[in-house]
Design brief:
By secondary structure, this protein is mainly alpha-helical. It is 49% helix and 8% strand.
């Protein structure tokens, strides 16, 4: 799984490509991803932003109280 910093970097690259009218993005490994349409690129950005939101949310822990009758 990607780290929060990697996800943010990928989101920024996707947004830069979209705002510049490009449909392809190259990641840090040198792999190139080409999107067929602007809407497909927008869905990729939304997916990455969803991952970022999930990664930056603090984890909830469940506590189960232990009780006894004192007998």
């Amino acid at each position: 799984m990607a780290t929060l910093a990697q996800l943010q970097e990928w989101r920024d690259r996707l947004k830069d490509a979209r705002f510049n009218g490009l449909r392809s993005v190259q990641d840090s490994n040198g792999e190139r991803v080409e999107y067929k349409s602007d809407s497909e690129l927008a869905r990729a950005i939304a997916a990455v932003e969803s991952e970022i939101a999930g990664a930056s949310r603090p984890r909830q822990s469940i506590l189960y109280p232990l009780t006894s009758k004192g007998v």
